[in-house]
Amino acid sequence: MKSIVIAAPQSGSGKTTITLGIMECLKRRELSVAPFKVGPDFIDPGYHRLITGRPSINLDGWMCRPDFVRDTFMHYAAEADISVIEGVMGLYDGIGGVQDAGSTAQIAKIIGAPVVLVVDARSQGRSAAALVMGFAEFDYRVRVAGVIFNNVGSDRHGRILREAVEHLGMGIKVLGCLPRDEMLHIPSRHLGLVTAGDNPLPAEFLDHLAEVIRCNLDLGLLWSVATPHFMEPGLPFAAGHSADITRTVKKRGRTPIAIAVARDEAFCFVYEDNLRLLREAGAEVVEFSPLRDKALPAGIAGIYLPGGYPELHAAALAANTAVRSEIAAAVHGGMPVYAECGGFIYLTQGVLVEPSDEADRNKVTAPFVGIFPVTARMLPRRKALGYREVAFSVNSIFGPAGTIARGHEFHYSEMEPMPEHVGHSFRVDSNGTELGTEGYRCGNCLASYIHLHFGSCPGMAAEFVKSCRKFRASNNGTKSGRKPKIR
After folding, report:
1. For labelling alongside 95, which of 9, 29, 49, 355 has CA 20 to 30 A away?
2. How many structural domains is the chain composed of?
3. What pTM was computed for the model?
């Protein structure tokens, strides 16, 4: 299979825009492209999906085992002509200074894909070749096969860059020199780019992007270097994971259990692998919109509320009283419900506005579901960012006490102190630093700021489905074939 990792020496080099341009050009050549994103980001994958028409899959070597990452890649890449993997941050940037866990380089080694380095050549000439040489030689197991220079000022500038890299004699191909172009700017918000749902990239933008790539990038040369070299066996797994993680196996012969998953502009941050693992464990994933639907899907036995931007759609979410009341009834009736980050906020009493004057102070913009007796408040600065490992201290919808899972936290909101009567489900660790307890629960509802990746402990997807089956079996009418009730 053809595959290529689009990486960069640092963030802000233009790799997202160039990745989208390459995907668009390949699609216009009637090639099927399997998109991937290194790391826990949700926004870039939305743009990948917009371009390719296929879900973009997160590949993360800190949250998930190497064998899980490799199997996931093979699963989604198998039927595509080429896989395009967008990196995260700088090529070798991960969780620390002495290991590559969580980095683009780690993923390139696990899946054996060659790397194309996107270098911002603004104000650089021959020095750019020194930078490329350093990245190529830093880790011999990472194969830097090509380079794309971005923000090139002129034809003469591009000629200097090409000559400098070719003179290295390392076999690294210069795939193209892209000129500076302010028309290719994609709007950003505090969590990164504006989501694809809010900024769907007009046809004029895509046409211009495709033309820039077509005229300045050698796609034939990119195709020739996109040849995997090896898949490195036996990469060590980062410490801290449960040693008895087992592969989730779909139970045959059992009726699928329906789980409602919120997916719309307000709830658009979900790991596609989480949904895949639920399906493999026997779930029927039924998508619904808390913004527009008039009711929850019929016959469900569980609810999954992913993250997103509920604060931007607070009025519409509050106006949908039917869905809010049904979710509240489901929680109070004992249905398994999992909510993360934005989904967690949706289960509170609401979001506080930024006060413009004293009259606005502590004013709730709109009421939400109200399961947890607190309100959230949006902040002008980031509240939390980073990988998290959680150790469950109680039995939960994801398994017994002692279950260990990993995820990521990134938000600009904070909660009021949770009342003491609300239970906590797990202890949180950040790279060896204890962060206290979290994972708030109400009956069979578990809510957290952390986006847990089910692939970090695949058994948790099966446990969630098991919890949903148990709930359905406990409802009146299940044995007679009637759909379970939400009380």
Report:
1. 49
2. 2
3. 0.89
